[in-house]
Recover the amino acids of this structure.
């Protein structure tokens, strides 16, 4: 299993546990996480979902060893992100590690995200000949536009304080200290109150999914299949600079 499940006091825990590839969004991990979210949605005992990770990386983005498999990969990721947004129960992410590329889309889809001092973030797609296409579905409606332009284009790393400032996460603070009050607040809310409040919060994001999913999935597939992206991904896997780097 690449996604471990637990349950306690109304909170279903989902832990990304694929350390061999830094919790990359492989087809298997995406499918397991989608199934776990579906099960949590159907479980009347689940009041909220807590998404965490093992190791020093929350999620490294797409599994580059599976790149070039057509539009199904991007569409599968879009379906996963939509499942997080549409889930009638709040999804809380707790991060104490690195988050890159597609992993940022997973954070953006969550309702609440907490990250500690050990977290770092970067949109690395442009450096690989790609673009943060599908993950823009939940991210662009929530990010500060100027900050999105800077980090989409430069691929710079930034910390949890900056992630909170630009709207990527909710709170910059150690999860162990922050989660208690947050989860207690969710437990005190009624299931109907949570579901309807979340429906209000996510309506605009879901309109973006309705409008742009197919276009962005097609764009992502086209970019992954390009010569420039192949060079960028190969250079990354070989730990060298791509041909265009100066």
């Amino acid at each position: 299993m690449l996604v471990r499940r637990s349950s306690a006091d109304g909170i279903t825990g989902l832990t990304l546990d694929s350390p061999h590839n830094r919790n990359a969004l492989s087809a298997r991990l995406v499918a397991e996480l989608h199934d776990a979210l579906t099960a949590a949605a159907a479980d009347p005992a689940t009041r909220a979902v807590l998404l965490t990770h093992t190791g020093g990386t929350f999620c490294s983005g797409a599994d580059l060893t599976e790149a070039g498999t057509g539009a199904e990969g991007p569409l599968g990721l879009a379906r996963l992100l939509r499942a997080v947004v549409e889930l009638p129960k709040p999804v809380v992410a707790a991060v104490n590690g690195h988050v890159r590329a597609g992993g940022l889309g997973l954070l953006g889809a969550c309702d609440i995200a907490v990250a500690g001092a050990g977290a770092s973030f970067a949109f690395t797609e442009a450096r690989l000949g790609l673009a943060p296409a599908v993950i823009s579905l939940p991210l662009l409606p929530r990010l500060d536009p100027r900050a999105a332009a800077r980090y989409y284009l430069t691929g710079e790393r930034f910390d949890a304080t900056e992630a909170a400032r630009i709207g990527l996460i909710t709170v910059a603070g150690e999860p162990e200290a922050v989660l208690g009050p947050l989860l207690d607040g969710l437990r005190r809310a009624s299931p109907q109150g949570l579901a309807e409040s979340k429906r209000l919060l996510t309506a605009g994001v879901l309109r973006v999914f309705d409008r742009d999913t197919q276009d962005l999935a097609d764009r992502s597939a086209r970019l992954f299949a390009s010569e420039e992206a192949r060079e960028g991904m190969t250079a990354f896997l070989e730990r060298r600079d791509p041909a265009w780097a100066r």
The chain has a mean pLDDT of 96. The chain is about 50% helix and 15% strand. The radius of gyration is 17 Å. The longest helix spans residues 191-224.
